[in-house]
Amino acid sequence: MPSMCESHAYVLRHGKEEKILDDVVLLKPEKGSVLLRNLFGDEVRVKGQVQEIRFTDHRIILREE
């Protein structure tokens, strides 16, 4: 069975990664924040920036400011 290739988004809080959104299909950096949208149209905006993206793990790590 083929697996989905969408990523999962996490935010770094107090040194730990907290999952904030599954099935991310859009990541849009904006001035001072990052907008994420998933397959179902749910959106999350994080005040901060991208820390790293792990393509092979399908993980997006954001750092809050």
Concise summary:
The chain is mainly β.
Could you characterize what this model shows?
By secondary structure, the chain is an all-beta fold. It has one domain (7-64). 0% of the residues lie in helices and 71% in strands. It contains no helices and five strands. A five-stranded mixed barrel has the order 1-2-3-4-5. It starts with 6 loop residues before the first strand and ends with a strand.
Query: Considering DSSP H and I runs of 4 or more, what fraction of the residues is helical?
Result: under 10%
Residue windows where pLDDT falls under 50 for at least 5 positions: none
Q: Which sheet architecture does the biggest sheet show?
A: 5 strands, mixed, barrel
Instruction: Give the total of domains.
Output: 1
Shape: globular
Q: Secondary-structure element order, as H and E? A: EEEEE
In total, how many beta strands? 5
Helix and strand content put the structural class at mainly beta
Calculate Rg over CA atoms.
11 Å
Mean pLDDT: 93
- Going across the major beta sheet, what is the strand order? 1-2-3-4-5
Strand content: over 45%
What's the helix and strand layout?
Layout: E1 7-13, E2 16-30, E3 33-38, E4 43-54, E5 59-64
Parallel strand pairs: 1-5
Antiparallel strand pairs: 1-2, 2-3, 3-4, 4-5
Features:
5 strands; mainly beta; single chain; five-stranded mixed β-barrel
